[in-house]
Amino acid sequence: SKCISTADLCNNITDCLLGEDEHDMICAHYCEWPSSNICSKKYSTVCSDEEFHCDGKCVSITHRCDDKPYCYDGADEPFDCANVTCPYGYFKCPSSGKCIPYEKVCDNIEDCPIIDRIKGITADETPQSCNLVLNHPNTIVTTQKTPQTNVTCESADLFRCKTTHICINHTYVCE
Predict the structure, then answer these.
(1) Backbone angles phi and psi of 130, in degrees to 5
(2) pTM for the full predicted model
(3) Are residues 56 and 44 in contact, defined by beta-carbon separation less than 8 angstroms?
(4) Mean pLDDT throughout 108-135?
(5) Beta-carbon neighbour count of residue 22 at 10 Å?
(6) Where does the record locate the signal sequence feature (predicted)?
(7) Which of 115, 108, 30 is nearest to 68 (CA)?
(8) What are the residue ranges of helices labelled H in 65-150?
(9) Quick one: how far is CA 70 from the chain centroid?
(10) What φ, ψ does residue 167 adopt, rounded to 5°?
(11) How many Cα atoms occupy the beta-carbon half-sphere of 153 within 13 Å?
(12) Separation in Å, CA 48 to CA 20, 44, 62, 84, 121
């Protein structure tokens, strides 16, 4: 009885004493050609950068590392979520590793899991996250923030917006 990584399931290498990690009961739902107790091919499809394999299908990476079981095979909640790399255009929640599209950062909706709270605010709604996204090239962010009167900019190079209280680079301010 030992724990193995989901990456070691159905990879044609027997890690469990009785070969349970390669058995049809586990592998059939995401193998192309399951045969007598051996999984001959793990995935038949190639997922985009914004997707991952979940039970043999490609699903959005927004389901990965969100502390909500989504995949029967456990692919959405790997043991190493903190080491997950998010694709271009996505914000990574620092503790959970969840990937959030930039347009969902700083929108007054907490998208990062509770584990990512910083001083009572989830990581995707902090002034630092808002600044990161606003300063990211080719990113359009439409915010409908409730005014936060206690927000201060950390740098003299930043300007605090009067209505949204978001800190932005001075170069984005029209005189």
Answers:
(1) -60, -45
(2) 0.53
(3) yes
(4) 84
(5) 22
(6) none
(7) 115
(8) 127-134
(9) 13
(10) -90, 125
(11) 17
(12) 30, 13, 13, 15, 31
Selection from 157, 151, 160, 161 nearest residue 171 by Cα: 157
Residue 152: name the closest of 117, 128, 134, 123 by CA: 128
The reported pLDDT for the residue numbered 24 is 63
Beta-bridge partners for 35: 38
Average pLDDT, the chain: 73
pLDDT reading at 19 higher than 70: yes
pLDDT higher than 80, residue 48 = yes
The residue with tokens 């049809």 is 24
Task: Dig out the tokens for 41 from the structure.
Answer: 């091919």
**Total Cβ atoms within 10 A of residue 111:** 20
Rounded distance between C-alpha atoms, residue 73 and residue 1, angstroms: 18
Q: How far apart are the first and last CA of the chain?
A: 67
Where residue 69 falls among pLDDT bands split at 50, 70, 90? confident
Contact 65, 78 (CB under 8 A): yes
* pLDDT for position 99: 92
Nearest in space to 83 (alpha carbons), one of 97, 69, 93? 97
Between 7 and 132, the higher pLDDT residue? 132
CB 172: neighbour CB atoms within 10 A? 11
Percent of the chain with pLDDT over 90: 4
